[in-house]
Amino acid sequence: MITIGIMSAVGIIIVLFKMGMARVLAYDVYVDIAATAFLMYVFSGTLGGMIAAMAGGLFISISLLILKMYIQPKAFRWGK
């Protein structure tokens, strides 16, 4: 169950890298909430599914936190 959650989280993180991780990290809290809610929706129905969703959400949260330390977020800038 935990492996399924982590592999799902890795898939979501790869898609976020394709979107431009520096821009995604500017809104990391919203991305984290949306990704965790998406995993909860996808795996809903069983206790094992919810454990997988929470493991995936935790992995995404930790990954975004670590990435934010190394990649400077790019938010919308006025005047450029």
Quick rundown:
By secondary structure, the protein is mainly α.
Number of helices: 3
Overall average residue pLDDT: 88
By helix and strand content, what is the structural category?
mainly alpha
Instruction: Note the run of SSEs as H and E.
Output: HHH
Number of folding domains? Answer: 1
Segments where pLDDT lies below 50 for 5+ residues?
none
Rg (CA only): 14 Å
Count the strands? 0
Name the beta content range: under 5%
Largest sheet: none
Helicity, as a percent range: over 70%
Oligomerization category of the chains in this entry: single chain
- Any idea what the shape is? elongated
Q: Tell me the distance between the termini.
A: 46 Å
Describe the structure in your own words.
- The chain is mostly helical and 80 residues long.
- It has helices at residues 2-24, 28-42, 47-70.
- Helix 1 runs antiparallel to helix 2, helix 1 (2-24) runs parallel beside helix 3 and helix 2 packs antiparallel against helix 3.
Structural topology:
Blueprint: H1 2-24, H2 28-42, H3 47-70
Question: What structural keywords apply?
Answer:
80 residues; 0% strand; 3 helices; mainly alpha
